[in-house]
Design goal:
By secondary structure, this protein is of the alpha/beta class. The protein contains eight helices and eleven strands.
Length: about 250
């Protein structure tokens, strides 16, 4: 099996017109996903945050975030997930403590408190807009080039059921072996993954449940229906429209 970086790049190289993600009843193609990843990559190159630099990612369940995640994996970035469902001041404190080279977040997440920390710490900022990624004016450059010898990893968040979510580091090798895996790559049967009923993605991208459901599905090329948050109505709609062989619910 290829390593995670190669798998991410291969996913983004799919035919441009092929449907990838349905969000709010609108299909996003792999060409649109690739454009976001490429725009993000250009902004990271321009920022000076080189290989080994840590990128903080405020991952909301949106197509642009899925594209950004694959794009950062294809560049072998170290990604530090930031819990999005907290106050603007709490996000600013997280960024101040972590001091990453750059931040990738939805444009509405950049509060004044957040921006003040980025300016003070010399942290580059890239805003995700459906479907685009742009550097924020005045925050194009990073003062933290990174360590080229660092092991690439994704620092996910625990669920937070017994306290604030905590980071837990997973190397690219561990993700390839134990989350993507040969079984997840093949999927059930020998049919074309793109022809199967779309999978439902409803867990937060930034935690272990989200990573387990998101990466294998996107990498094997199965279409997905993305919910910003789980809802019974969204789950029921998915069942009615696509009649999947398998489905699940949060506990």
């Amino acid at each position: 099996m290829d390593d995670l970086q190669q798998l991410g790049a291969a996913a983004l190289a799919r035919p441009a017109a092929q449907p990838a993600v349905e969000f709010e009843k609108q299909w996003i193609t792999w060409g649109e996903m690739r454009r976001v990843a490429e725009r993000l990559g250009a902004s990271l190159d321009a920022s000076g945050a080189g290989r080994g630099a840590k990128i903080a990612f405020i991952a909301r369940n949106r197509p642009s975030a899925l594209a950004a995640l694959l794009g950062m994996i294809a560049r072998r970035c170290t990604v530090r997930m930031i819990y999005p469902f907290q106050s603007a001041d709490a996000i600013a404190r997280d960024i101040d403590r972590i001091e990453p080279a750059a931040v990738v977040a939805a444009v509405e997440d950049y509060s004044e408190a957040f921006l003040a920390v980025l300016r003070a710490r010399g942290i580059a900022a890239i805003a995700l807009q459906e479907m685009d990624a742009v550097s924020l004016p005045g925050l194009e450059r990073s003062a933290h080039p990174g360590d080229p010898a660092a092991v690439a990893q994704i620092e996910i968040l625990t669920s937070g059921t017994t306290g604030p979510p905590k980071p837990f580091a997973l190397s690219y090798e561990m993700i390839t072996r134990h989350i993507v895996g040969a079984a997840a790559m093949a999927g059930p049967g020998n049919d074309d993954p793109a022809s199967r009923a779309p999978a439902l993605l409803c867990f937060p991208v930034g935690n272990i449940s989200g990573l387990h459901s998101t990466l294998p599905t996107l990498i094997r090329g199965q279409r997905v229906v993305l919910l910003e948050r789980f809802s019974v109505a969204g789950w029921h709609d998915h069942l009615l429209r696509f009649d999947p062989q398998l489905s699940g619910l949060p506990p």
